[in-house]
From TrEMBL:
Single GO BP term: lipoprotein localization to outer membrane
Keyword Metal-binding attributed: no
CDD domains in the cross-refs: ABC_MJ0796_LolCDE_FtsE
Keywords linked to the UniProt accession: ATP-binding, Nucleotide-binding, Transport
Gene3D superfamilies noted in UniProt: P-loop containing nucleotide triphosphate hydrolases
Molecular functions per Gene Ontology: ATP binding; ATP hydrolysis activity; transmembrane transporter activity
Domain ABC transporter: 6-225
Gene Ontology CC terms: membrane protein complex; plasma membrane
Family named by the database record: Belongs to the ABC transporter superfamily. Macrolide exporter (TC 3.A.1.122) family.
InterPro entries: AAA+_ATPase, ABC_transporter-like_ATP-bd, ABC_transporter-like_CS, ABC_transpr_LolD-like, MacB-like_ATP-bd, P-loop_NTPase
Listed name of the protein: ABC transporter ATP-binding protein
Presence of keyword ATP-binding: yes
Length: 225
């Protein structure tokens, strides 16, 4: 493996059963280097989210390889995949999936709790530092459901960065934000990731966001074109 944060080769995925079976991904290959931002774009239903789920080890391909940290994890067992996911991958989704009854600080600490390598004091300090970096240093104890949409998405970014992942996967990270917040969230995500040499792969329908990425991967009918 060269200097690659993640690489997939000939990924194939079928979804559905019987007559409804769809060949969603057809031998998709992609290699992404640390510190770069790649956008996957294409019409609705072309397979973008399916690919992101596979890369995030949230789903298994029917064929092909997914290399992270020098291991092909395409068919690895659940325990191994969960460990690699917790250690190497941060997720940002359009609908952030914060726990609404928990504070911003507690939401950011969750991935660190899952990984289980830091003391409570270390986790609290790191979560506070990350919230400061996303401009929410004054609101660390606010409950997630008492924050605006843009603020919640910034908490989601801090949470994605919590375990210093080598890869950040983002599905429509600015999809539910207005133009101003969308630009701000994108800038923040890419600046923080680049500072830490993290690779970002994002799916977006927003041409403005796509145009600001380092690499563009247009997709159609389950293949890159
Ligand atoms: N569980 C499923 N069973 C059958 N087909 C499915 C299933 N999940 C997704 N599909 C189909 O797989 C294709 C790819 O879906 P996917 O969500 O990856 O597309 P997408 O490019 O992310 O679309 P969008 O931009 O609308 O989010 C679509 O045609 C979809 O209908």
């Amino acid at each position: 493996m060269k200097n690659e944060a993640i690489r997939c080769a000939r990924l194939t995925r079928y979804l559905g059963a019987g007559d409804a079976r769809v060949h969603v991904l057809r031998e998709v290959s992609l290699a992404v280097e640390p510190g770069t931002v790649s956008a996957i774009v294409g019409p609705s239903g072309c397979g973008k989210s399916t690919l992101l789920y596979l890369l995030g080890l949230l789903d298994r391909p029917d064929g092909g390889e997914i290399w992270i940290a020098n291991e092909n994890l395409a068919q690895a067992g659940d325990e191994k995949r969960t460990q690699v996911r917790n250690e190497h991958i941060g997720f940002v989704f359009q609908f952030h999936f914060l726990l609404p009854e928990f504070s911003a600080l507690e939401n950011v600490m969750l991935p660190m709790r899952k990984l289980g390598r830091a003391t409570p004091a270390q986790m609290t300090a790191r979560a506070a530092q990350l919230l400061d970096a996303v401009g929410l240093g004054e609101k660390t104890h606010r409950l997630a459901n008492q924050l605006s949409g843009g603020e919640q998405q910034r908490v989601a970014i801090a949470r994605a960065l919590a375990n210093q992942p080598s890869i950040i996967l983002a599905d429509e990270p600015t999809g539910n934000l207005d133009v101003k917040n969308s630009g701000m969230v994108f800038d923040l995500l890419t600046r923080l990731a680049k500072e830490n040499g993290q690779a970002i792969i994002l799916v977006t329908h927003n041409p403005d966001i796509a145009g600001r990425c380092d690499f563009l991967h247009p997709m159609r009918d389950g293949v890159f074109v």
